[in-house]
Amino acid sequence: MRTKMVAGNWKMNKNLQEGVALATELKEAVKNPIGTPFIHLATVAELLKGSAIKVAAENCADHEKGAYTGEVSAEMVKSTGAEYVILGHSERRQYYAESYEMLAEKVRLALANGLKVIFCIGEVKEEREAGKQNEVVKAQLEGSVFGLSAEEWKNITLAYEPVWAIGTGLTATPAQAEEIHAYIRSLVAEKYGKEAAEDTTILYGGSCNEKNAAELFACPDIDGGLIGGAALVAEKFLAIIAAR
Questions:
Q1: Catalytic status, residue 161
Q2: Which pLDDT value is given to residue 196?
Q3: Catalytic residue chosen out of the listed positions 91, 161, 178, 210
């Protein structure tokens, strides 16, 4: 039975004090992962210990340890008390040139250190307009996560985020979102079997908000959302969670 989930990705927003205030506001009501900047992790994880909220890092390094100034390893993330890490986000792919191979290594290290992974996939506007969205998400899965064992796959949550809808105000229609979510689930079934596919949580991201969440989440293959801007406001985030 797959898990219904609404994950919040704070990105590079909120200083530590603001992050703690938001986490405190959400503590009693939220039962979903929230992804916080690295400097917040230990403080927020301690604050939320024993609550239903799971804490996620927004990234981790593709090296186990060593002379990589400024990087944060999966082991370091785990040591803060975080349980999840978000990998493959389009902003990381675009701004930091994260390749399929680099992401595969990040996923491997995250799982090896006991973290669960929220793995993001999705196409840019030009690829959608050319009808290549299925081709793109298939390549992203095959390039970075379809090398995992069936046992490792149990710790993967997928997040489909059409890049053309992230922060733009544009949103895939429920029909568009359901179509590609169903396709993604079919790829998982081909690789790991129908039962594993049915157990895989697939989230929608990309200008998902309190106004459109209920319609999107009503689709049979959409199991929740990975929320950006709306996750920064407790009232909006709680309304999205209520729409699951």
A1: yes
A2: 97
A3: 161
Which of 236, 218, 219 has the alpha carbon at shortest distance from 227?
236
- What's the predicted TM-score (pTM) here? 0.96
Give the span between the Cα atoms of 121 and 141, in whole angstroms. 8
Nearest to 204 by CA among 240, 232, 234: 240
**Going by C-beta distance under 8 Å and a sequence separation of 6 or more, which residues neighbour residue 126?**
none
Supply the pLDDT for residue 153.
98
- Mean pLDDT calculated for residue range 218-228: 96
- Any idea which residue has 């090896």 for tokens? 112
Torsion (CA) 27, 15, 231, 82 in degrees, nearest 10: -60
Residue 29 pLDDT: 76
Options 58, 89, 91, 127, the catalytic residue:
89
